[in-house]
Each structure stands twice: as structure tokens, then as C-alpha cells.
Design goal:
Organism: Dicrurus megarhynchus
Number of helices: 6
Structural class: mainly alpha
Largest sheet: none
Helix content: over 70%
Keywords: Membrane, Transmembrane, Transmembrane helix
Distance between the termini: 36 Å
Protein name: TMM79 protein
Radius of gyration: 18 Å
Length: 161
């Protein structure tokens, strides 16, 4: 489903990436796009804090209620996945040709939407969370494989430079 969503958005959304001839300009563009990917994480932190305040636990370090535990787990996993996403996206931006730089905001949107889907499905039940997690993890895996391919096959002479 993820390749179909990204391809459809790439073809049908009417925007293009700005001209980014240098690596530093591409990294700044990636950093700006990654700021939007923090939205689900920050929203999760806010909801987690509110649910922690509204829980009826008398002991602050006692056992957490299910709804508090759901939000805490979501925030923790989202932070870990965001770090992986950001570093993969930064490396990907250096290898993509100019005409494919439109993928960076599209993959950012896919990351944010898939984290929100994971959060909602995780709140419904633990057995439903696989769809949202796979929409987050499989594009990360594809980016990692492309980055490794780019480093070791396409440009092995620039691996450490």
C-alpha cells in the first residue's frame, strides 16, 4: 500500500521540489520537512501528559493505567522511529537526483500519517497496530536499503568522503 500511496501522490500532487544543487541545501530542505514529521510525536507527548494528569492514580510512580501506558508507549516508539526516519531521510536526500527530491515531503507526510494511524489502531487494540507500524517501518526499511545500495554500489569511491 505504501508504494501505491507514494507513487500516486508523486504523480498527482501539483508541486515540485525547489532547485537544490548542493548537499547542504538538500540537508536544510530535509530538516525543514522533518519538522513536520515531529507533529505526531509532539501531539502524543501532549496527550500523554494530559492522560497522566487526569489518571486517578494516587501514587505518581505506581502502576500506570492502560490509557496512560498506550500514550507513553506510542511516544517512546515514535521518537525511536523518528530518529531512524530522519537519518535515513538525510542520507537519502544526498543520493536522490533533483527530479526525485519531491519524495522527501511525500515520505514525511507518509511517516506522520502512518504514526497517527498506528496510534489510533493501538488505542483500539493491540492486534490492530500492525497496519500502522508496517506503514511506518517498511518505508524506513526501503530507504535504508536504497541508502546502502547508493553507498556501496552507486558511489563506493565517496563512501567515507
Amino acid at each position: 500500500l505504501c508504494p501505491c500511496l507514494v507513487y500516486g501522490a508523486y504523480i498527482f500532487l501539483p508541486f515540485d521540489a525547489p532547485l537544490l544543487p548542493t548537499v547542504s541545501a538538500r540537508l536544510v530542505y530535509t530538516l525543514r520537512c522533518a519538522a513536520f514529521a515531529t507533529f505526531p510525536v509532539v501531539l502524543g507527548m501532549i496527550v500523554s501528559g494530559i492522560s497522566r494528569l487526569c489518571s486517578s492514580a494516587l501514587e505518581p510512580f505506581g502502576e500506570l493505567h492502560r490509557e496512560v501506558e498506550i500514550h507513553r508507549t506510542y511516544v517512546s516508539q515514535s521518537i525511536h522511529l523518528f530518529i531512524l526516519y530522519f537519518f535515513n531521510m538525510a542520507v537519502l536526500a544526498t543520493y536522490l537526483p533533483q527530479e526525485l527530491l519531491k519524495l522527501i515531503p511525500l515520505l514525511t507526510g507518509l511517516f506522520a500519517i502512518s504514526r497517527l494511524i498506528f496510534w489510533m489502531s493501538y488505542a483500539i487494540g493491540r492486534s490492530f497496530r500492525a497496519f500502522g507500524f508496517s506503514m511506518t517501518f517498511l518505508p524506513l526499511l526501503a530507504m535504508l536499503l536504497w541508502n546502502l545500495y547508493g553507498m556501496f554500489v552507486l558511489e563506493p569511491e565517496n563512501l567515507l568522503s
